[in-house]
Amino acid sequence: MVHTDAWWRDAVIYQVYPRSFADSDGDGMGDLPGITGRLPHLKELGVDAVWLSPFYPSPQHDAGYDVADYRGVDPLFGELGDADKLIAEAHGLGLKVIVDLVPNHTSNEHEWFRAALAAGPGSPERERYIFRDGTGGEPPNSWQSVFGGSAWERTPDGQWYLHLFDVSQPDLNWDNPEVRAEFLDILRFWLDRGVDGFRVDVAHGLVKEASLADWTQPSQILGGIDPAGPPPPMWDQEGVHEIYRSWRQVLDEYPGGRVLVAEAWVAPADRLARYVRPDEMHQAFNFPYLEAPWEPSALRAVIDESLEVNNTVGATTTWVLSNHDVVRHATRLGYPVGTPRMHGVGAEDPQPDTALGLRRARAATLLMLALPGSAYLYQGEELGLPEHTTMADEFREDPAWERSGHAERGRDGCRVPLPWEADAPSYGFGPTDSSWLPQPATWAEYALDRQQGVAGSTWELYRTALGLRREHGLGRGSVTWQDGSFAFRNGDLLVLTNFTAEPVELPAGARVLLSSEPLDGDGRVPADVTVWAHL
Ligand code: NOJ
Predict the structure, then answer these.
(1) Which DSSP state fits 350?
(2) Exposed end of the chain (fewer CB within 10 Å): N or C?
(3) What residue's CA is closest to ligand 1, atom 4?
(4) 153 lines ligand 1 (CB under 6 A)
(5) Minimum-distance ligand 1 atom for the alpha carbon of 147
(6) Whether residue 323 sits in one domain with residue 252
(7) pLDDT digits (tens, 9 = 90+) for 405-441
(8) Active site residues
(9) Does pTM top 0.85 for this prediction?
(10) What is the position in ligand 1's atom list of the atom closest to the CA of 202?
(11) How many separate domains does the chain show?
């Protein structure tokens, strides 16, 4: 059923990365009470919902995306009662709460995997995972892990298990009814606690092609699917859809519009739209939009295609520029247009033009927030935070750094704890100066208390934009392209981004409501600026 008035269709959803949002107890690791204490800030910013990356018990080999118990809270982050309090407080403020669900793999410390290792080949315990015999000491096939190296690990008894990600993240066997039943129960566990939805990790990976045929191309999750090539045997298999249909039925039993959001790196766009058909998920992250270069024809093409394909299935389109897996957009946009996708940035790598990156990031955000549909923000982007591009390698925790043989710096640079107060220890992240990843020495200028109430600050830009977006119903509107510059109408607003080096005139009579940077002395829109104007 298509819910046209549902809350999520135009929601702005703010991603909280629990490790790095706010630390209440001073151990250098963010936690649930820290998040709860800062929720009023998110209300003030003007978002509709928060999505929390995993906070479940986990050995933290992949920052919590290696889940050892799907029904609890890791002591690092608090206890189950803290999750209940967070949900209640958020609801009290009118904020929805989406939690992360990681169904493709468990942690190797999950009781099921321990039992599988102990029970040995041929046992029902091994049937919950993907164990196979190798041939002549070689793994069962040529699949590579997304983080680098073989996707197979040999156990002491000689069998191998599949891990598309880290060796500590064995893939579950979704052909096993026990696995399916378990996740239906996990959904109910959190729905009963009041969560408003789930962001589904690696939603395109659960089902593998039955023969586990060799695949010699890289199995990178980002850009791993070449739309022109043969379909990869580990991604986007037809069988995933019946799983989501069964989940949808569970969600629909609950009141209030609970949602499923697909993290699916799938191409082309019409394949992705299949995840948000009326009886499956509600939303899917729009990664082609995130990956589009700062270039008008590419952006216009991806906007048009996104709106069109989602329309064919009655789904809402989503937009996103940053998350915990990619280089922050304030940094990405500080590199020359056409720079290939970066897997982290290290001190010896070419450094971005920080001022240009922030200028373009602010323009990109205003463009995104003017589009109809739902938008995802990643914590810290409202402060204009850049990537930590000079972190010493000794601090890196992302498994991709080691597994890629140091070819990829990994994702730590976008996961650095937030600066709240310029002059406090750990910039107010917590009560001590401890933070699990080092914060750059230059971050005082990004702190929230340096931006609140300061005209023109990035935080005020986001807050004003979110208010106007709501007031003008932009999330429920439509895009009508205008001739000439890169400009479209959405309702009573004209949205114009200047991608050229020369200033651009606004149409006669346009009254500027918001601009990502000041206009020039003649009232023209300078380079790399987005304007919202009333016509
Ligand atoms: C996608 C998550 O966003 C990422 O952080 C994680 O490493 C992989 N899935 C594996 O769970």
Answers:
(1) P
(2) N
(3) 325
(4) no
(5) 7
(6) yes
(7) 999 999 999 999 999 999 999 999 999 999 999 999 9
(8) 201, 253
(9) yes
(10) 9
(11) 3
